[in-house]
Design brief:
The protein has one domain (7-148): Chorismate lyase-like (Chorismate lyase, 3-Layer(aba) Sandwich). The protein is globular, with a radius of gyration of 15 Å. The chain has helices at residues 7-12, 29-35, 69-72, 82-89, 108-114; strands spanning 15-26, 42-52, 55-65, 94-105, 121-131, 136-144. The protein has 5 helices and 6 strands. The chain is of the alpha+beta class. A 6-stranded antiparallel sheet has the order 1-2-3-6-5-4.
Length: 156
């Protein structure tokens, strides 16, 4: 499992996601360092909104190394899990993820997407997913509405 809930748990709880934006960009210095390549190498930025029972619950901003773009871009906007699709389709093996949990104020975009007031407190989960070699596959920065924050975080 690479997120805070398994695909099955999200589905059973009525969670549905959709991709709002998917675009290639040049890696920032921070992204390049995390992925272990030079700045300005291609990365894929993906913005997703997850809802439960029709209510916005989670904004996910994920970055993937450019070599994964060809596998991610064709995925349907309503795919349950990008990492789950990569694990199945490319037979990637996720070794572990590291997650940092904290609180932050909702940005203007977070507020609009989550249906909260700008600067409202939201749960922030920053995640790095790595393969068996230790190479980063995903860098994510997720924002949860407080009432939809996970009660526990598990990764394996």
């Amino acid at each position: 499992m690479t997120g805070t809930m398994t695909i099955e748990q999200r589905s059973a709880a009525g969670w549905r996601g959709r991709t709002l934006r998917c675009e290639l960009a040049e890696a920032t210095v921070r992204e390049a360092g995390a992925f272990g390549f030079a700045a300005r190498e291609p990365v894929l930025h993906v913005l997703r909104l997850l809802e439960t029972e029709g209510v916005p619950a989670l904004v996910s901003r994920a970055t993937y190394p450019g070599w994964l773009a060809a596998a991610i871009e064709p995925l349907p906007d309503d795919v349950d899990s990008i990492m789950g699709s990569l694990e199945e389709g490319l037979e990637l093996v996720v070794e572990h993820s590291v997650q940092r949990v904290g609180a932050t104020a909702a940005s203007g975009e977070d507020a609009r997407l989550l249906g909260v007031r700008r600067s409202s407190p939201v749960l922030r989960v920053v995640r790095s997913v790595r393969d068996l070699r230790g190479a980063a596959l995903e860098l994510a920065d997720d924002r949860y509405r407080p009432e939809h924050a996970p009660e526990r975080l598990v990764s394996a």
